């Protein structure tokens, strides 16, 4: 396990405590984020922390990582005498934090980013310069290999990486930094099902080396695949800590939101005779997508499911003017459209929701009001002069209709992931498009907010929109869509009616196997 193995002792006896949160609380002005939490982690275990948005799970992780100072209580790391009140103290104690949004310097190379954590402690020399020549490249390659990135170009600028690979590069730092406790704070939120296998391999290696892995997540399949114990947070308090073997996903979700979660039934297929075709895609090639053809009727939700490299995002971006289309035609209400930009696509009736909402979904320095009306500024201005009162009335209505927490003046970047996504969806729909393309609409969103997003998307059926949902989750595709198109290696490998199909049908097709 490289450097990590030297600090996570494989010979640690069972139930050896590595850290304890002793009555820890955190209060911000007017908000109790964490209240009187007592919790311990043990060597060689995976402790999952689950909770809905705003439950306090990320704040708890930041307290353990020294990024926040507790208002009450203590953070104790076994073998460390000092207080854990700063990130540097946590690192000295052997606590390593991996964020939901990977800390990547785009202008640095991949190799430089692998060694980034040690930058502040390296003095005048950069940490990647402390190990020389071939040994440095070999250690970097070995670290990246643990997370499935062994073949990446070490000298490539990190800014060229997609969301999933960026997170994998960040996670590889665990292999070159000594630690006893590894905190994974929603680190799988921006990755796909394939990358989760690499995360699983990393966690297994950490556990075998005797480290404590704290896995913060809202994805129940991942939690139950990895965790030995599950700590559930709700409204800042620790509700319960249970052994994974003694509970079920439904029980954990009920603890998270305080009520039973009802599973969504797959929607009925749209009868062809009842609805006109709004979107026609014919022989479209772009990026890794090749010769794709399909159509979507009014009031229909069509899913596009596939693994990494299948062409699903290339298809979505080419339809909506975000990516150049090499061949093929796209028609909206029978009229051919060829948008050269997202703005042109909006004018031609196509709205797009990016899978990377923080980079493409909203402007982080703008408040909710400004972000919500970005796509329709012309409706609130005359000769460049904004009608602020009219804009604010509309914003108030949108905040109410979409259940967005926080007022018009609150920064969108300060909202939870679910509320940020509501802002992005509301903004996209403000132009009243005929076609709505949603790329990974629930990425990084907990179960409660996810159901809320599903309700919003299904509401588009009543508004007679044609909806395309691009997703890497087979369960989501079947729960949300009338039909699902499966892509593999850039082409359509199969099409399924959700009501009569299973996740096994989709995943087998995506992997190239035979449907049972």
TrEMBL record:
SMART domains noted in UniProt: AAA
Listed GO MF terms: ATP binding
Residue span(s) of domain ABC transporter: 19-260, 273-514
Protein name: Sugar ABC transporter ATP-binding protein
Region of interest: Disordered: 317-341
Organism of provenance: Streptomyces javensis
InterPro entries per record: AAA+_ATPase, ABC_carbohydrate_import_ATPase, ABC_transporter-like_ATP-bd, ABC_transporter-like_CS, P-loop_NTPase
SUPFAM superfamilies membership: P-loop containing nucleoside triphosphate hydrolases
Listed transmembrane segments: none
Short name of one Pfam family: ABC_tran
Matching Gene3D superfamilies: P-loop containing nucleotide triphosphate hydrolases
Key words of the record: ATP-binding, Nucleotide-binding, Repeat, Transport
Signal sequence region: none
Matches recorded under CDD domains: ABC_Carb_Monos_II
Biased composition (Basic and acidic residues): 323-338
Tree of life domain: Bacteria
């Amino acid at each position: 396990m490289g450097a990590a193995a030297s600090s996570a002792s494989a010979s640690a006896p069972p139930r050896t405590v590595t850290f304890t949160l002793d009555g820890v609380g955190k209060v911000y002005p007017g908000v109790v984020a964490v209240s009187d939490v007592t919790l311990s982690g043990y060597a060689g275990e995976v402790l999952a922390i689950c909770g809905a948005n705003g439950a306090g799970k990320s704040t708890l992780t930041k307290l353990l990582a020294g990024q926040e100072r507790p208002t009450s209580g203590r953070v104790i790391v076994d073998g460390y005498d000092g207080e854990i009140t700063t990130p540097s103290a946590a690192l000295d104690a052997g606590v390593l934090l991996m964020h939901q949004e990977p800390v990547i310097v785009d202008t640095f190379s991949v190799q430089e980013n692998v060694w980034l954590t040690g930058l502040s402690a390296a003095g005048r020399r950069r940490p990647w310069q402390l190990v020389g020549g071939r040994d440095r490249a070999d250690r970097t390659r070995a670290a990246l290999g643990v997370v499935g990135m062994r073949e990446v170009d070490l000298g490539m600028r990190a800014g060229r990486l997609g969301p999933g690979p960026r997170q994998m590069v960040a996670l590889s730092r665990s292999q070159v930094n000594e630690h006893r406790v590894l905190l994974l704070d929603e680190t799988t939120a921006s990755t796909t099902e394939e990358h989760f296998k690499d995360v699983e391999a990393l966690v297994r290696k950490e556990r075998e080396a005797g480290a404590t892995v704290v896995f913060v997540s809202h994805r129940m399949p991942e939690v139950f695949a990895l965790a030995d114990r599950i700590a559930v947070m709700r409204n800042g308090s620790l509700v319960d800590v249970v052994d994974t073997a003694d509970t079920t996903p439904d029980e954990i979700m009920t603890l998270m939101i305080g009520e039973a979660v009802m599973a969504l039934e797959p929607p009925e297929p749209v009868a062809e005779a009842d609805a006109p075709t709004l979107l026609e895609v014919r022989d479209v090639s772009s990026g890794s997508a090749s010769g794709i053809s399909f159509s979507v009727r009014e009031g229909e939700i069509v899913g596009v499911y596939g693994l990494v490299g299948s062409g699903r995002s290339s298809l979505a971006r080419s339809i909506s003017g975000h990516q150049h289309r090499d061949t093929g035609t796209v028609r909206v209400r029978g009229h051919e459209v060829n948008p050269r930009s997202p703005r042109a696509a909006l004018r031609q009736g196509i709205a797009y929701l990016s899978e990377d909402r923080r980079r493409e979904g909203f402007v982080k320095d703008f408040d909710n009001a400004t972000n919500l009306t970005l796509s329709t500024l012309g409706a609130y201005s005359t000769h460049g002069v904004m009608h602020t009162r009219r804009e604010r009335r509309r914003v108030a209505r949108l905040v109410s209709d979409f259940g967005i927490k926080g007022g018009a003046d609150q920064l969108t970047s300060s909202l939870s992931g679910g509320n940020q996504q509501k802002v992005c969806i509301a903004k996209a729909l403000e132009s009243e498009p005929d076609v709505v393309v949603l790329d990974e609409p629930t990425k990084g969103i907990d179960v409660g907010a996810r159901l809320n997003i599903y309700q919003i998307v299904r509401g588009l059926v009543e508004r007679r929109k044609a909806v395309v949902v691009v997703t890497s989750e087979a369960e989501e595709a079947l729960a949300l869509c009338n039909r699902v198109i499966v892509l593999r290696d850039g082409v359509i490998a199969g099409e399924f009616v959700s009501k009569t199909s299973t996740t096994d049908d989709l995943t087998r097709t995506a992997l190239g196997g035979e449907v049972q």
